[in-house]
Structure formats: C-alpha cells, structure tokens
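Reminder: ligand-aware prediction takes two inputs, not one.
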Amino acid sequence: MKKLLVISPHPDDEVLGAGGLLVKAKKNGFKTKVLTLSTNFPEPITKERLEISLKESTKAHRILKVDKSVYFNIPTLTFSRQNIPNLTSRISKEISNFKPDIVIIPFPDRHQDHKIVFDLSMTVTRPKGVSKNIKIVACMEIPSATYYSAPSVEPNFYPNWNIDISGTIKQKAKALTEYRSTLSKTESARSTKSIYSLASFRGSQVNLNYAESFYIVRMQSKKNIL
Ligand SMILES: [Zn+2]
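Here is what comes back for the chain with zinc ion:
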C-alpha cells in the first residue's frame, strides 16, 4: 500500500495546502498521515486552547479521512527557540515508522514557522537512511502565508505539479470550516470562497476544473504514482 505523509507546520495548513490531495490519495488506496508540528496558538498555551486546537483538527481530519494524525503541540512562533536536532530526530522517527512514498512539506514562505519547518523537512527527507525510498517530496501552497512574501525578493511559488481535485474540493472546503478558531471574516485567504477561487485559477492553468498545486523539490520516479 502506498503512503502519503503531510508535514503541516500548524493545524489548517494541511487543509489549505493539501486537503484535496489527502482525500484523493485515500480514494486511490493510499494510507494517509498528517504530522502537525505546532498548535494554532502562541505561548502561553493553556489546556483549553490546546483542546480547542486538537478538537478542530480531529474533526477536519475526519472529513479528509486521514488515517493517522500526530501532533507535536509546539507553540506557534517558537520554532526558532526549539532544539532543532531533537525536533529533526522526532520527525525522522515518524518517517521511519510510516515509510511514506510521498511527503508534502510547506513552501518556505513569509511565515517564520513555515521557513523553519521547510528546512527541517528538507533535512529529514534527504534520499538516504530512513528516507531513501521516498518517491516524491513536494512543497504545498498555503495561501494564508505564501502570498505575503516579498515578490522576487523572497522565493515565489510557481507550481510544477497540479493535482486534479475536482472530485475532492468539497471535502477540502468543508474541512477548513472546522477550524473555527482561525477562520476570520477579514482574512479572506482562509475561507471557502478562496479555496474555490485558488483551485479554479490553478485548474485553469492546466485545463482542469479545480487543481491543488505543488512544487516538487525531489522526485525518484517518473511513474504516475497517484
Ligand atoms: Zn501555517
């Protein structure tokens, strides 16, 4: 059985960036896992806040039919203060246990946590040791952060892999609505409307109704793995 792992910096990034792919992969016989490193809340994280975050994420993952959800519960915006070798080894252990064929990681966008998790992910998915059999490593497009980068000064997201999510976009949009604590009426990137708009735009670039786009940073096989 093929396996898909999504490394998500925060709860909701996996929905925004790879929600359609997660459902599609599951439909196509994959086993799916989401590793969420942070919570949605900065310090201090109270027990109540943590419970809200985990409850919302569990509901979203149920809609996406995720097989396994793992949470490291690191407070948001504290990655630069974490013990990086220790964190790298914890992520490596998750890869070693799950043995994924595809690993989806964040794009190094404006969000400081996304940049650090991108770096960590690139380290742990080097094609050797526990990661030697990974077929594809690809960055996901997380609109709430990717679009705040400085054009041309910072890396811009240009997809080179577009997945047809016409059959799974409904679940993606529904899953996002479970993240009630992060949805904002004033921030339009995190909305059902934006999910449809972006997927429609990405789809139009490659003659699909709705697409979810990725940037492949490493690929071992040219076979259509999905
Ligand atoms: Zn994030």
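Residues 3-219 form a domain with the Rossmann fold fold (CATH 3.40.50.10320). Residues 9-10, 13, 111, 114, 142, 145 surround zinc ion (CB under 6 Å). We will return to this case in the review session.
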